[in-house]
Amino acid sequence: MADPAGCCRPCATCLLCLYSCHWITAKKEKRKGLRTTKCDCSWFLFLFLVFLFTLVWLYFTVIILNDFHNFNEFIFKQRKLWLDWSLVLLIATAVLITYSTTLLVLALCLQLCGQPLKLHWLHKTLLIFTALVVAAAFTGLGIKWAEEWGSARISLQATGPFLHIGAVGGMTLLAWPLASFIYRTRSAGLRVSLLLVYCAVMMALYLAPLGITSPCIMEENQLPPKPVLVGHRGAPMLAPENTLMSLQKAVDCDVQVFETDVMVSADGVPFLMHDEELTRTTNVQAVFPERATLNSTAFNWTDLQQLDAGSWFLERRPFPTVQSLSASDRQEVTKQRIPSLQQALEAAKQSNISVMFDLRPENHSDYQSFVNATLEAILQSGIPLQQVFWLPDGFREQVKQQAPGVQQVYGRKRLQNEEETLLHVNLPYQDMTSEEIRQYRRDNVSVNLYVVNKPWLFSVLWCSGVSSVTTNACQVLKEMKGPIWLLPSSTYLMIWIVTDCVSFLAILWAFVLLKYWLFSLSVPPESETDVLLTKINSLMQE
């Protein structure tokens, strides 16, 4: 290995120490074995692939944060342990991506300095461990949370143009160490192979926008109206879910529909509750410890009224927004009780908002009596029936006969040769494409998608033309005056062309400049003795 060219000895020493755990010594013979072998190149390639693998997982981590509250609820049902697992996921992902990025940067700097890429065995072990952890994470995601692949597909509509620019920029920067390696290596086959692969990747990136589609690439005058906000169990980031306080907070967020879940007590009173057990959102373990694991419908209304439905919100902090509550809000939280459906309907009537609910559990043996009790509560509340949206599929025909004014909402797409006219559909946001949303809009079918919490997702659905979205973050989406980004197709075309042209020129400049720089370093300057001998020889000839 030659002495470092264009790289100071302390820098090269530090880089080798961190990457290879080797020190540069003054004597050449002690550095004789430090050469980059084919095995070292293979480990560098593995490092690069692990970096890309981890980078993709980081992207997935950011995307699935929209739905992570569902994961927290799932873990609580299984383990009775509440924790914001998104923090654990983010910290673990940050550690993995930081480690792989640091190693990759060290390797690229060593290559630019002309140093050997001798990866230490400890780094090799940790890289394999990183790859296994990320692979396990992806496998778990595919098995237990497969719908998130749909979330990733939708996210590309929001991030595609920017991922393209970032990928082009990253590969352009890679041209410097690549050119350095190509000029220094003696293997012609390896040089040609690397150049062909690099050129193929760059060509694919330059043409990638041909396959990038986004509903937000449109003229501003074509933007559909802002989707209506539906409060998921009210405003659960600002108040305990499915309480009257949560309903009022949703009203303050300009929510037009209060979405909730209804169960019926043992003595026939419909009340608001999502979980089949009361343990997550009440203090049932303290009040009725021997009955805490029973189904919510096993309690009568008198028992349910003894439960505190608010304090858990302050203790477990299901969302980071809890810590920013005012003192008056905190005091109000501790006063919350489980509301009956009739109380919720009366509050909705007073605030002039609609109510959409599901009746649970649908597999209960007394489900028909649940439907009857719920219809009775609706009719007794005095709320205009057009403000009530009915989600349950069971006994839907009975509901239409007894309360014909109630809006029927279906949890499925239209069928071919559909005899019944569907005016409202309620689906997970992963289940509908932008093209389907536009078609439903043209056919005057109202589409509500759930659960939409992040501005990037709300922006994509807004551009697609969705009618409404169910959200936990009404206070965030309320403030959005438009999608995060909106680009006319002509502007995006110009950005695409400029990005590709600048990248091509930068890559060309990198290869030309490095060739000139390395050539200048390889030509040794004439020594003073050589100059003196040349002058003496000239004088003797004269």
Short description:
With 542 residues, the protein is an alpha/beta fold. The chain has helices spanning 9-20, 38-64, 68-79, 85-112, 121-144, 148-173, 175-184, 188-207, 244-252, 284-287, 301-304, 311-316, 327-333, 341-351, 367-381, 396-402, 434-442, 455-464, 474-477, 489-522, 528-541, and strands at 228-232, 257-264, 270-272, 354-359, 388-390, 407-408, 424-428, 446-450, 468-471.
Q: How does this model look, in words?
A:
By secondary structure, this protein is of the alpha/beta class. The protein is 54% helix and 8% strand. 31% of the residues are buried. Helix 14 packs parallel to helix 15 (367-381). The chain has two domains: 9-214 and 488-522, no CATH class; 228-478, Alpha-Beta Barrel (TIM Barrel). Strand 5 (388-390), helix 16 (396-402) and strand 6 (407-408) form a beta-alpha-beta unit. The protein is elongated. The chain contains 21 helices and nine strands. Strands 1, 2, 3, 4, 5, 6, 7, 8 and 9 form a nine-stranded mixed β-sheet that branches. It is a multi-pass membrane protein. Keywords: Glycoprotein, Hydrolase, Membrane, Transmembrane, Transmembrane helix. The chain crosses the membrane at residues 41-65, 85-113, 125-143, 163-183, 195-212, 493-514. Its main location: membrane. InterPro entries: GP_PDE_dom, PLC-like_Pdiesterase_TIM-brl.
